[in-house]
Amino acid sequence: MSTIESPADHFAPTERTTPNRAKERVSYEKAEAYRVLDEALHCDFAFVGRDGAPRVLPTFHVRVDDTLYLHGSTGSSMGMGAREGFAVSVTATIVDGLVFSKSWFHHSMNYRSVVVHAQARLVTDPDERWSAFRALIDRFSEGRSDRSRAASSKENAASALLAIPLAEVSLKQRAGGPNEDPADEDLPYENGVAEVVTTVTGRL
Amino acid sequence: MSTIESPADHFAPTERTTPNRAKERVSYEKAEAYRVLDEALHCDFAFVGRDGAPRVLPTFHVRVDDTLYLHGSTGSSMGMGAREGFAVSVTATIVDGLVFSKSWFHHSMNYRSVVVHAQARLVTDPDERWSAFRALIDRFSEGRSDRSRAASSKENAASALLAIPLAEVSLKQRAGGPNEDPADEDLPYENGVAEVVTTVTGRL
């Protein structure tokens, strides 16, 4: 990897992670993208079905270093679809605000959204499975895996786990107040941002 | 449509909207699914790229009767990919709680998640575009389209709009407290649900 185009703390842009527009909203900084993956309570996972049509499903995830683990069931579409090295796209999106502009066109949202493209791997190694399941439980609350009964072999066997390498990743985000065309500045409409806040109360 | 398999207030299940497991969590009731689409602040939109790989992108949506409109830009992947009758899958998911069980295996989330499969249509009719854009603005706040400047022809031309017919739709949801195996009931671990609440403050 070139140290110019892709230092260790940045993802190398690819054709799929290079936007056609609003390039100023896109970042390849690892730390920023990982903060979003770590904060998002769920992600959406897309793959191509056997019929050639796209499928998207929500699921729960945890990031461990440069790998994103997705939880599934061996009986679900995700588990059924999982085979060595199949193409997936994953997004985790957090909405931070509704942006009210003086014009329809500049209404927008404040958000942080990570998109990942990868070849997914079905995790079969027992040690990797165990530590990923532990990390998934600990995402609910720090140390929770020590405050609950670990999975039995039967329970373990009923859970599917996909590993998504975090290499082709981009973060798109918007923050701040509304954009306004200069000609709209004097229009008698209110503008501003409504904050969107997600709170989790009562973690055990 | 058969009135037995699909009364007017229910979607007819298809192979893609019939789960392999957890069937008790799936509903085809229109009113329930529409409440989730109307409450979710954003949705994720999947399609198959020209390279055959899946793409998933977040976007903003509005439902008008039995159509879901997705907002895009003519310059974005969504606009570029849009062509008459291309296959898409859309999900809108709301997380309501983190479910702490006495066992790793029964840790779960409370959520409501709609998945739609459809052939998307790029909206070109000027009247349909206008009323869908108005509805998108009014989703930010009731009547907002009358409290902001309507789109100019140039702004209108820069916005892409996809229409997704709501016919192949399912709602998956979980609510309530943790499941516990009878053998775990006496384990000395706390269990319960942490509520996840999303609030929007200061709509204009």
**Overall spatial form of chain A:** globular
Instruction: Quote the beta fraction of chain A.
Output: 35-45%
Question: Biggest interface and which pair forms it?
Answer: A-B, 81 and 81 residues
- CATH homologous superfamily grouping of chain A: Electron Transport, Fmn-binding Protein, Chain A
Topology:
2 copies of one chain form a homodimer.
Chain A (H helix, E strand, L loop, with lengths): L25 E2 L2 H10 L3 E6 L5 E6 L1 E4 L2 E7 L3 H5 L4 E15 L7 E15 L3 H15 L12 H5 L1 E7 L2 E7 L17 E10 L3
Antiparallel strand pairs in A: 1-9, 2-3, 2-6, 4-5, 5-8, 6-7, 6-10, 7-8, 7-9
Nutshell version of this structure?
The structure is a homodimer of 204-residue chains. Chain A has 204 residues and is of the alpha+beta class.
Comma- or semicolon-separated keywords:
10-stranded antiparallel sheet, 204 residues, alpha+beta, globular, homodimer, disordered N terminus, 4 helices, Pnp Oxidase, Chain A
How would you describe what is shown here?
2 copies of one chain form a homodimer. Chain A is of the alpha+beta class. Chain A has a single domain, classed as Pnp Oxidase, Chain A (Roll), CATH 2.30.110. Chain A contains 4 helices and 10 strands. In chain A, strands 1, 2, 3, 4, 5, 6, 7, 8, 9 and 10 form a 10-stranded antiparallel sheet that branches. The longest helix of chain A is centred in the middle third of the chain and has 15 residues, at 126-140. Chain A is globular and about 65 Å long. Chain A starts with 25 loop residues before the first strand and ends with a strand. β10 (192-201) of chain A pairs antiparallel with β10 of chain B.
